[in-house]
Design brief:
Layout lengths: L1 H58 L8 H19 L3 H5 L4 H9 L4 H18 L1 H4 L9 H8 L15 H14 L9 E4 L2 H13 L6 E4 H8 L8 H15 L4 H14 L12 H10 L5 H13 L13 H4 L1
Parallel strand pairs: 1-2
């Protein structure tokens, strides 16, 4: 009887020690976990504050027109950062000293309407400030639509206007606004057009508006400028250069391949202008006579007549034309 009581006592003591050790280990583990999550939240809070500062600067009128791509970048970063915060267990977020800041950030939504309302207010503000500036551009006053085109400053702007509607005047007004209002160095501004005549007119009107050193060039002159270091003996040399690029280099760049195929598909068989035909019937006959082929069809011809085999651009052998294309 005494032996069994002793054994029970030993068993209880052992269980007590095991429980004590387990509790100590769990306590240490909990503290280590809490420390890890606290460090994580401190790091995320720094990113949240930096993001908030960037967002505040963008919304301030001093930063100019708020571009959609900049606002979209803020929205994307906000979503990614919110996802990171949500990976931290709820209890650790709520027990953090800046739990209200974390909750407020998680409840925030970056919507495009905010950007639109901000830009609308910005345009109205600029219209008042620049009224006198844009009321005398090359001796003329710009209307509301022209002023809106000037104040709008997206990454790329498409302005559609008919002949004689004041496109050139708007371009001159935009340059005047950038230089006099936004403080842009005229030497950093590039104005391009298709013809020498239009470039000459732009240059004259910009200088007449009191702005010097703005670079006005045709698209072709810009292209030739980039080829200063390239010596071409004749058109055949350029043709061979392009063919060599298409043969050896373009296959390494998927985006270049896509761009080339889109360009080829749109411009490979451009019909002549109507004025070059005596009658519409002749133009229709010429269009019918064009031997149009799909890319798949052209590849089939190459594979059969030249290669005599079905190899991909990367040198892999396939068993059918369908696999090749």
């Amino acid at each position: 009887m005494e032996l069994s009581s002793f054994l029970i006592f030993i068993l209880i003591a052992v269980l007590g020690i095991v429980c004590l050790v387990t509790a100590i280990l769990l306590s240490r583990s909990g503290k280590a976990g809490a420390g890890k999550y606290k460090d994580k939240l401190d790091y995320l809070l720094t990113k949240i504050r930096n993001l908030h500062e960037r967002k505040t600067r963008l919304l301030d009128f001093d930063s100019g027109y708020l571009m959609k791509r900049d606002w979209d970048a803020i929205a994307s970063e906000t979503e990614e950062l919110q996802a990171e915060v949500l990976r931290v267990p709820f209890w650790f977020r709520m027990s953090h000293q800046y739990s209200k800041t974390l909750k407020s950030f998680l409840d925030a939504h970056v919507i495009d309407l905010t950007r639109k309302n901000r830009n609308s207010a910005y345009v109205q503000c600029e219209a008042k400030i620049c009224d006198s500036l844009l009321s005398s551009v090359d001796g003329k006053s710009l209307d509301d639509q022209q002023r809106l085109a000037i104040f709008t400053d997206e990454y790329s702007n498409l302005i559609i206007a008919g002949a004689g509607s004041g496109k050139t005047l708007t371009v001159v007004g935009k340059i005047k606004y950038l230089v006099d209002r936004r403080g842009i160095d005229p030497e950093r501004i590039l104005v391009t057009s298709f013809t020498r005549k239009s470039v000459h007119e732009l240059t004259e009107r910009i200088e007449r508006a009191g702005i010097k050193n703005v670079s006005c060039k045709t698209f072709h002159s810009i292209g030739f400028k980039q080829l200063d270091d390239v010596v071409l003996t004749n058109d055949k040399t350029l043709e061979n250069c392009i063919k060599e690029y298409l043969k050896r280099c373009v296959v390494k760049e998927s985006k270049q391949i896509q761009s080339f195929l889109e360009f080829y598909g749109c411009f490979a068989h451009l019909p002549k202008d109507y004025a070059e035909y005596a009658a519409d019937g002749q133009r229709m006959e010429a269009l019918k006579a064009v031997d149009l082929k799909t890319i798949k069809g052209k590849l089939a011809e190459v594979a059969v007549s030249k290669l005599k085999r079905l190899d991909t651009l990367h040198g892999e052998r396939v068993r059918s034309l369908e696999e090749l294309t």
